[in-house]
Structures are given as C-alpha cells and as structure tokens.
Amino acid sequence: MKNCAIVGINWGDEGKGRMVDLLTQDYDIVVRYQGGGNAGHTVVNEKGKFALHLLPSGIFRDGVVNILGNGVALDAENLWKEMQDVAAKGVTLTPENLKISERASLLLPWHRDLDALEEQRLADKKYGSTKQGIAPFYSDKYQKKTVLAGELFYPDELMAHLRDLMEWKDLTLTRVYGAQPYSMETLEAWLTEYADKIKPFVCDTGAFLRQAQRENKSILFEAQLGALRDLDFGIYPYTTSSNTTAAYAPIGAGLPSLRLTDVVGVVKAYSTCVGEGPFVCEMSGAEAEALREAGAEYGAKTGRPRRVGPIDLVATRYGAQVQGATKLALTKLDVLGYLERIPVCTRYRVKGTETDAFPFPTELERAEPVIEYMEGWGCDISGARRWEELPAAAQRYVLAIEEAVGCPIRYVSVGPERESIILR
Ligand code: GDP
C-alpha cells in the first residue's frame, strides 16, 4: 500500500496545498489530520483559486475521498462557510467525497472568544494567535471538555453535555475575563445554524480507513503549518497547539496502525513566518519589502503581511529531520528571479559561536544568522518544466539546499498553478 504525508518543513505557508493538489492524482483518499481553520492552503487549478482552511485539498479531484480526521479542530462554522464557498464555485461536496470523523472534537463558539480575550489580556506579550480558538480548543480537548462530532446523533445526551460544559466555561468567561456568559439558546442556535449542516458528513471514518487499508487503497495525509510550529518540536510557546509532524498523521487521521511509506517535506525557497516568535533569519526594510512583494507574502487566512527572510538552512535541516522527510518539494523558486545575488542563512551564531544545530527555544531568541550569498539567475523561470530548462545558477541553488539539508529535492515548484512543477 502506498501512503504519504505532505508536511511543512518550516513555519507554515510553504505551499503544501499546491503539492497536495498536484499529488492527489495518485491517491484514493486525502486526510487532514490536525489543526483547524487557523491557516490556509491556497490552491490554484482549473476550477479557480481557492483558500482552503479546513477542507482537504483533494476536494477538487473527482473520485478522491476526503476526510477530516479525529485530530482536527472541527470548526463547524468556518467549515460550513468554506463548503458553501467551494460549492458556489462548482465543486461538488457529498457524503461520498467528504467524510468527517465522528471522533473529531467540535470547536465550540466560546473557544474563539477565549482566544481573543486571552490575546487581549496578554497585550504586548501576545502569541500572535489568529484568534480562531485553536489553543483554547486543544486545551479543552485534552481536558476532555469538548464535544465529539458523533454526539450530534444523540441530541438528548448532547444537550445535557453542552449544558455541563457551558456552566463550567461560563465561570471562566465571567470570573476570569469579565465577559458575557453563554446561554443554551445561543448554543442551540449555533447547533442549528452550523453543526447540523455538517452532520450529514459525519461518520465512522476510522472504520472507512481500516477497510481502505485492507483494500490496499492509497492514502495521502495533509498537514497544516510546519515543523517549527509543532507543539512538541517547534519554537514553543510560539507553536500551534497540535502536532504538525508526519508522525502524528496515523493518530490524527484515525488509522493508528499505519506506517507511512513516504513523507514529502515542503520547503519554500526563502523563509516566511506569520505572527510572533523568534525568526532568526528575518530581513527588514526595503530588502524585506521587495521579497514580500515578489512572493505576495500575505496570510491566506488573515491577510497579515508575513515576516520574510532568506532560506534558513539550520531550521530547514532540523525541520526535515523531525518530519522524517524522505523527499523534499522546493516551492516558489520563481520568486527569487529578481535577485542578483541570493542571501542564504547557512549557520547561526549563538553567544559568539557558530553552529549548525537548531537551538533550544530560549537560545533561539539570542541566535543571529550567518548569511552567505549565492549567485542569482536574474530571469523569469516560471515557464520551466524540466530540470534542464532551469538556468545553471538556479540548479546550483537547488543542489546547495539539497546538500545542506541532506534530503533529495524531488519537486521544484516555479509557480502556483498545478502544472508549474519540475520533477527530478
Ligand atoms: P500552504 O499553507 O503551505 O499550502 O501555503 P499557502 O497556500 O499559505 O502559501 C503558498 C502560496 O504560494 C499560495 O498563494 C500558492 O498559490 C503560492 N505558491 C505555491 N507554490 C508556488 C510557486 O512555486 N511559485 C509561486 N509564485 N507561488 C506559489
């Protein structure tokens, strides 16, 4: 059986969506296994341009079954809006091509409120949350204080459960933050407006996946964000609240017995980072502005300008290692065409000593980038479809990254469109 995870090697926004969109042609099933609607995958194909937040990127391929696994933060409100958006652009969604795990926990309305209230309390010490409720959601999940999607099929028990949770949550809202409490009327309205809409798609996806495994179906696992945002291995506490690493795919997807055969790590040809936290290779001024403009680096979900910098080989090597990447996809190489010479962060300097190793989070705050320059190619390469069509300087850039990271680069992406790809 062929199965593969497509994961981010850096801080997210590497272009995973375009890689999943490309590779779904070889797979029967695509599963999103962690995270929520707090980041976006941009996909450009013959149906249009889409910013997906929760829907798996395989949704555009006929015959592919798309699954939201138990590991995701199931935000019914955002998901329903997203489903309507893609349906309006001609994408068919049915319980046959979209399945939601009955074991996925529901992101409840107060999670978003609590996210915003806590960021407000933190003021200038904020984490840079997208305020989609992800951190409060995951903490409640691990406290066993949220609701499983499958509970929608048991309305009496669900209402009693929600009432208990509301009473508990109202204590925090009113006493800690001085905010308004919830009422059962508000929750009932939310259930009718959003949760009931996604109910027809909720089923036992674990049983479906085990059957698919027996039938040797091929499965693609789609992650959100990147290795450096992983809760356990990233730049804690500026991480997300779930595991973005490939190792979590079998659990979060609902097929815990699975062994991944391939892990495609997606790396951007330069660095970007949204939100707060240490970003060692960060550029500033006109240099940063030029790169941000060239790469259109504004968040798919929030529209926030992304922080930018040169490729960071220290972070990328670490990211590839924690992901267990078996091959890499290098994206947005075309964006660097405007540069005469390309900066590369080859090492860090920590307390006066140069290092190749990715430091512990506290040390990271003190690390400085060691920048070297490579010759640019100074032309538009977005039309290249074969390795030989890339200028020699672009080839050298790709090979230098491959060598430094220690993992083969099998895909080089030179544009957002499905066909703008070079296979090596
Ligand atoms: P994801 O969350 O990892 O899927 O990444 P995003 O969708 O947030 O960001 C990637 C952005 O880059 C999207 O707007 C893509 O359409 C775009 N993109 C992906 N690959 C390429 C590429 O090779 N070249 C260019 N110019 N844009 C790309």
Description:
The chain has a ten-stranded mixed beta sheet with strand order 10-7-5-2-11-1-12-16-20-21, sandwiched between helices. It has helices at residues 16-23, 76-88, 109-122, 134-142, 155-176, 184-198, 205-214, 249-253, 285-295, 313-323, 361-364, 392-405, and strands spanning 3-8, 29-32, 41-45, 48-52, 65-68, 73-74, 98-101, 105-106, 147-148, 202-203, 219-226, 262-268, 271-273, 307-309, 311-312, 327-331, 341-350, 353-355, 368-375, 409-413, 421-423. β17 and β18 form a beta hairpin. It is an alpha/beta fold. The chain is globular and about 65 Å long. It is built from twelve helices and 21 strands. The structure holds guanosine-5'-diphosphate. Guanosine-5'-diphosphate binds at residues 8, 12-18, 39-42, 44, 300, 331-332, 334-335, 413-416. Guanosine-5'-diphosphate binds next to α1 and β3.
